[in-house]
Design a protein that fits this description.
globular; mainly beta; 40% strand; 122 residues; 5% helix; three-stranded antiparallel beta sheet; four-stranded antiparallel beta sheet
């Protein structure tokens, strides 16, 4: 396992591991590590918006800005990389070998992915 610490905001807010970028997202539904690319066609998921997915029982989804592909917020949160936030830093455990190539970079986040979780939110 590869353990990295990076910023939750601004410069250095993206951990790229073996070519895959991850950012720390803060939404109304909670906080989690998010792949920075959409699984559909590699669109910039870090710029996604959030919208309801039909009925309230289906919850909310991330909407890829390239093709409007929907990804369930519940699915993303459930498959999120384990992480602990402390102040402006987050330490995450990535499912990669400890010797994996990595770099800390910057990716802008959409306003909907950089919100503080609301009190009582999930």
């Amino acid at each position: 396992m590869l353990v990295l610490t990076f910023s939750v905001d601004g410069g250095g807010n993206c951990a790229e591991v073996s070519g895959v970028g991850y950012v720390y997202a803060r939404t109304e539904m909670g906080e989690f590590i998010l792949p920075a690319q959409c699984r559909h066609r590699g669109g910039p998921l870090h710029l996604a918006t959030i919208r309801a997915n039909g009925t309230p029982s289906k919850g909310k989804c991330l909407v890829c800005p390239w093709h409007e592909t929907l990804t369930s917020m519940a699915r993303i949160a459930a498959s999120s990389v384990p992480a602990v936030r402390r102040g402006g830093q987050v330490t995450a455990v990535f499912p990669h070998e400890a010797e994996s190539d990595f770099r800390i970079t910057y990716r802008p986040l959409s306003a909907e992915l950089s919100r503080a979780a609301s009190p009582g939110g999930a």
